Amino acid sequence: MLAPDGPRPASRGDGRCCVAHAAPRPTGAGQVAGLGAVRGRGRSRAEPDSVVAVDVGGTGLKGARFSLDGAVLERRTLPTPVAQGPGAVLDAVAALAAGLTAPTTCAVGIGCPGLLDTGAGVVRYAPNLGLRDAPLVEAVRRRTELPVVLEHDVRAACLAEGRLGAAPGARDLLLVVLGTGIAAGLVVGGVPVVGATGAAGELGHLPVVPGGEPCTCGQRGCLEVYSSAGGLVRRYRAAGGDADVTTAAELAARLPGDALAARLWGEGARALATALVTSTLLLDPSLVVLAGGLSGAGERLSRPVEAALAEGLAWRPPPPVVISPLGGRAGLVGAALRAVDLHGGGSGAWAPAVAAAS
Ligand SMILES: [Zn+2]
């Protein structure tokens, strides 16, 4: 059990994914002070022993309260009320965080897609959430009265993989999160790649089929049209597949007997491999980690992708393609790790087995 007996330096500079983005610890806040300091001031607040994390998605919000040593204490989910407007989305995130907060919770971490200004705590543009210049951190801080840290959801997932998941300490890593859309977390030489405008890693909009099917982004032939969970289900249904199939897990369950599902699954795997060939040649990663909801398909996903990647690389060996042990929880776990960083509670004590079992 990790004893939060005082603020500790946030881990950084150890070459692991996203660690360099650890936010400065708040100062002078009783709820993040060590036990001794709290007692010394005669305050009644109990010893900090948990953080709350929220992973904001286009269809749902996942939230959990974690102990400081990584155990899940409580989990809740909410639908994301995108259709009700940005105010409703901010309210829902804040309500979920507040509902999970205990008197001994010391910080909140939020993982969110889109273009973010993490320093200002603002979502600059997240079309899947209907958010533009939305003060997400302030909304959650106001409701919870706790320190709140915002991190890009994929970089949060990357943080989780770099500390607890498939690639602890990897200096050159490609994380591909396959969900409603597709995004990538990149680590090059131990440094997470953010990009000039914070938009690095938009692997889902890499064109893989010239002149292919239209994408919601305005381009054609984008990877996520063919290989995301949403894209696979949409293409299956559009091609006359069983209308009862509404999730990628249901689609995967039909393999290999359903010929249409098998064909589209194969196309999706090859499209992903095409993007990975480009990525491998460009970045030379030591490992490719597949995460997000679609990674629940396990080897039914990784094997054909790995085979097609090897086939596409004529003169060099492919990097291994592995399924994240954290799966769809990577973003949530990463957001929790950022909250622990914010608290200064030494998240290095988190045990992979504990977090993975959550
Ligand atoms: Zn696109």
TrEMBL record:
Cited PANTHER family: BIFUNCTIONAL UDP-N-ACETYLGLUCOSAMINE 2-EPIMERASE_N-ACETYLMANNOSAMINE KINASE, ROK (REPRESSOR, ORF, KINASE) FAMILY
Gene3D superfamilies xref list: 3.30.420.40
Family designation: Belongs to the ROK (NagC/XylR) family.
Protein name per UniProt: ROK family protein
UniProt organism field: Pseudokineococcus marinus
Superkingdom of source: Bacteria
